[in-house]
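Q: Please design a sequence for this.
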């Protein structure tokens, strides 16, 4: 049920419940307090009418009774045999003969106070002869029973306070009910707000007890998912900053050390050339790391312009030639089967993919191992598979390998330099070109990276 529908139902239910409570409260109040009071008030009016009629001349009695009827009272006058009505007829004129005789004998009839209880003061409005007060009166020298009750118009005037109380009760109870409903609706939003504010201080363990199926419940579920992702991202970012700081600090420290050595006069020309070579190597390493960071940050725009025809096989040959020294240094055997393949894309970005893939193959291969590179073309596109016989990855590492800032188990890779950006860069570039990248790996059994791209 949506929050909108739920709010409508809550409002309707609140109004209904408050009306029912006010309804029965007013009925109980009438039955306990007003019913007897109403009977006594009308009995006093009936007695005053009887006294007036007793003092009225015979020829004026009929006119007086008409006046009473016009004043808002229904009168039923009987001697037990004949009946006269003034001010309107009763809906139900059934009454026990003993009650009539009782009135004729001079005993008042308290029908209003004795009338059966009904829902919402309906006894007050019941236009029945039994719901009257009766007194004895002498008309034309003959004893009569006079039964009296106010008509409906007069009753509504008398009940304005009761209806006012009913209206106030409905409004007050509805207001209290809506306050409760509003609190129930706002409470989870308050929890979400507090949890969001805590996220600003990188506090991700604020509990949320929101178990709902409406929009707020879905918002809470999405918030928990988002918070989990932000928490993971924050942890990876901190780890990434630590790794990158180490990777930057290490070459900088080396450069500073060798620059200090170069300032010494006793350094020979051979040593000086060796130091310059080391400084250049570390500078290249810093430049590569910086380029990787810049490449990664540029993907947020999700643009691969300019598009051009890129000969993938040729780029791979150039990359293998560029990395020839790295392969020879580890004494790695290289097998390359490259079919001619052209794709539409950004040549610079694709070149970055091949460099990262092959550099990883070299980096994580054991000395004396082998790297197999196979590029094939089909009607659907091209496929590049790079297999090595290196240290491999665990299933968990494979699952997270393409995530930014992620590095595999440090206990197994601490001797290998890197920032954890290479595969993330590969994955994002391949996706920008409409392709896919997959990893198959086992610990100590090597890794196979499979890249598929649509061809022209």
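A: Design:
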């Amino acid at each position: 049920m949506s929050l909108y529908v739920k709010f409508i139902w809550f409002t309707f239910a609140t109004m209904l419940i408050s009306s029912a409570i006010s309804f029965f409260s007013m009925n109980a109040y009438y039955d306990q307090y007003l019913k007897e009071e109403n009977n006594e008030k009308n009995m006093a009016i009936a007695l005053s009418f009887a006294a007036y009629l007793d003092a009225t001349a015979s020829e004026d009695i009929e006119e007086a009774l008409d006046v009473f009827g016009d004043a808002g009272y229904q009168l039923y006058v009987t001697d037990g045999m004949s009946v006269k009505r003034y001010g309107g007829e009763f809906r139900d004129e059934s009454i026990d003969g003993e009650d009539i005789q009782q009135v004729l004998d001079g005993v008042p009839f308290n029908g209003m106070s004795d009338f059966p209880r009904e829902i919402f003061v309906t006894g007050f409005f019941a236009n029945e002869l039994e719901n009257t007060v009766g007194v004895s009166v002498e008309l034309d020298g003959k004893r009569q029973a006079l039964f009296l009750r106010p008509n409906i118009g007069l009753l509504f005037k008398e009940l304005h306070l009761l209806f006012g109380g009913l209206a106030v009760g409905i409004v007050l109870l509805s207001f209290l009910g809506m306050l409760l409903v509003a609190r129930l609706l706002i409470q989870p939003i308050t929890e979400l707000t507090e949890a969001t504010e805590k996220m600003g201080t990188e506090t991700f363990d604020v509990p949320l007890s929101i178990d709902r199926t409406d929009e707020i419940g879905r918002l809470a579920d999405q918030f928990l998912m988002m918070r989990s992702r932000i928490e993971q991202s924050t942890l990876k970012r901190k780890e990434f900053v630590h790794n990158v700081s180490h990777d930057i600090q290490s070459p900088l420290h080396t450069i500073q050390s060798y620059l200090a050595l170069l300032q010494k006069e006793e350094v020979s020309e051979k040593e000086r050339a060796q130091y310059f070579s080391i400084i250049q190597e570390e500078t290249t390493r810093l430049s590569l790391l910086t380029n990787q960071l810049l490449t990664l940050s540029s993907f947020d725009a999700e643009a691969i312009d300019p598009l051009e025809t890129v000969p993938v096989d040729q780029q791979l040959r150039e990359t293998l030639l560029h990395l020839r020294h790295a392969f020879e240094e580890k004494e790695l055997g290289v097998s390359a089967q490259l079919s001619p393949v052209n794709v539409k894309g950004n040549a610079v970005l694709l070149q970055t993919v091949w460099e990262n893939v092959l550099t990883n193959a070299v980096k994580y291969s054991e000395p004396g191992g082998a790297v197999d590179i196979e590029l094939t073309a089909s009607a659907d596109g091209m496929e590049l598979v790079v297999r090595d016989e290196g240290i491999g990855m665990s299933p968990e590492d494979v699952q997270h390998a393409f995530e930014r800032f992620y590095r595999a188990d440090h206990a197994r890779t601490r001797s290998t330099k890197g920032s954890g950006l290479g595969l993330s860069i590969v994955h994002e570039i391949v996706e920008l070109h409409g392709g896919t990248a997959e990893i198959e790996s086992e610990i100590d059994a090597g890794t196979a990276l499979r890249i598929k791209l649509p061809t022209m």
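Q: Thanks. Anything notable?
A: The longest strand covers residues 142-150. The chain has a mean pLDDT of 80.
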